[in-house]
Amino acid sequence: MIFTDPIFFAFLALVFGSYWLIPGKEARLNLLLGASAIFYGWWDWRFLGLIGFVILISWAVAGFAARRVPGDRHRRLALIVGISANLAVIAVFKYFGFFAESARATLATIGIDPGWTALNILLPVGISFYVFQAISYIVDVARGDLEPELRLRRVAMYIAFFPQLVAGPIVRAASFFPQMERVKTLSSALVFAGLRAFALGFVYKAGIADNLAQFVDPVFGDAQIPGDTDLAAWSNLALISATLAFAALIYFDFAGYSLMAIGVARWFGFYIPKNFDHPYASPAIDDFWRRWHISLSSWLRDYLYIPLGGNRLGERKTYRNLMVTMVLGGLWHGAAWTFVAWGAMHGAALAFHRAFFKTRAAIGFIYGLIATQIFVLLTWVPFRAESFGDTLVIWSAFTGLRDGGSAEISAWVWLLVPLIALDAFLGQGGLKRLKTSRIFRRPAFYWASLGVLSGILLALYPLEASPFVYFQF
Amino acid sequence: MHWSFFAIAALGLLLAHGLRLPFAGSKTTAIIAFLAGLAVAVFAVKSLALSSGIGRTTDFDSFVNAAVIEASEDYAPIIVFTGASYSRNGIDPERLTIALRERGYPHQVVNLSIEAASLLEREQHLQQFIQLSGKVPDLVFIEVAQDFDHRAAYMFGNSKFNMRAIEQFDLSTTAWTGFGILGGACDGLKGCVLDTAYLGLHSMLNTLNVGLIGRGERAANVKAVPAYDPQTEPREAVDPSLSLKTKPAEVFQGPQWIRSYRYQQQQRLLAQGTRALAYYQPPVLDPAARAYVEGLCEGELFAFDCFSANAPDLMAQLNGGYWFDSSHLLDSGTAIYNAWLVEQIVESGILERGR
Hints:
Chain A is mostly helical and 473 residues long. Chain A has 19 helices and no strands.
């Protein structure tokens, strides 16, 4: 069940109606918890056991810590156990097969057959997101930044709240727990705020991203079927166009899903911070990372980069910390060396930017924008390609040195550039006077606009929906 | 994908970014304004799609385009075979063309068939073929089958809520299918209720343009793929000796709804310039299904050339490993059937009559 499925709308209507009809904060939390279990179990009910384990371990260690004074050896040990257990979950379900296969391949190159084959473990949906939320909760408690929550239901709601359960944004306990205590009332402001985020997210995801897969998959290959690519058949321009289409797809897909999550959460009276801020308008790579997947990059900053020393230990260690953070950030996206390479390239770019472009004005907005976005575009190649071999072929298409095939994809794909520019322009305050005009708030105009938007979305709605790209992470 | 996708997506972004908390107003105003906005958008998108030739493209468009290419290769008169999966497996246009030319007939045979295609859907694509090729077929061979005559919404038994299912239910197809369901061309009360519900939903999705721009394309831009789908390995074990069993055919007329549709289709095609129509069904193992077509040939379709596969000489030849399953032929079976069919066509005189 994803947010663009018709079944989700039925589910949402039922939960929304019940939520606001039921009086009492606790009963509403129970309802949301039950709904979250149904939402998550819809993929595979066996996943419920895993998320239940993550919730229980996080609640138990934090509860244990609450009974000990800060600095106590047992408290520290319990918290380490909690973090390790969460990391073990993600290590087993997400990375075990990858490392086992990598080790087997390495041994095979020196003539040793270890005699094992990597297990094909089913990757539970959203595991990277909810495990990171659980870890941040335990670390915040360990640091003394957050009072441990003794009520299991609260911890369960924080980790399993269905709007952001499977794909984020990664929410912090410090901002979420107080929201559970507030008594919420249904208001038109709340409904329209949720609708605004959800509608924009729906345009992004169902209207645009899901329709771009038809340009990307034939070239890069179906992500679900390894080895089905035939890059030799495609012209250089087709490879470049498909990379552009992928850059647009991943942005509209993920930003769209995040916006829909924000909108759905809003309808239940919860506030989730934004996850994207028009990253393709960034004139520098550090700025890009302040705008792309904000909840993950801030998580990596707070729970990895800063604990490693951040920028407090001198320039060389700062570069090291950037590299470590980004390589692990790359690995977070997927258990493959191409993701590691993607992270390493971004780490190197951040270090390079820090070393040579200390001020924004150093290169200028336009040149900075072009250089940053070309770099980001090139790094999407290993992110999406099935292998390093494919990556090199596509990169060589960018140089023009490759003898390309004759297969083309529609040249209309290049209209994505003005489309992304329009989105950034509108999202960053463009046409502000027009948008804040009172005429837009007149009921007849508002509802007619919503009617037109609905008509447009129906025409754009993909009958064969594409799965959300970030589910695989 | 068409450029209009980007224009409409841009408009969507503009509207979505512009949504602001509205002032309080009456519910009636809200509903009327919303429906008016929706109607304007639906009408505008439909107009754009029609003027640009955009539709929800399916495999059928690929088959039409392949047929258009074949038809444009020479100036020979065209024979179109249009059917469902029976014909997709059982009509090899290349074999038929060669066999006819060996007998001195210059005709070019094309196959316009796809799985689970009703007569109504096939007619849509036949008209598409005529429009894209600019050629009116000299002869049209129309597959008839019991399954399709007795279930107006046969498509829903195979697939639902996809591009093909939605695209075919325009107002005309919906009306004819509804006529069929009202006349009892459905499977029991439950089946009739379900088919009616699915028909309503698909028709609504078609009217509201669902998926039309997102996945729409001009039919001519779809990659050409020949419809004939030769099979070499059986997909299920069958008893080929069933081919020797025959059931006496009863002379009859098809159900009212399909009879009416066939009549107006005949009038349309003949008015467009098609010289003659013929009916046929490729061989199936079920004796009752064969007898149905034979009865139809001798009854409702007696005025037309009609080639039922209920002929004992043909079915005796197919008593062996020629079956993909009980209703479809392997390529080896198609070779036998097509050779027999050519003889029947030549003997009937349809190739020369009225020229």
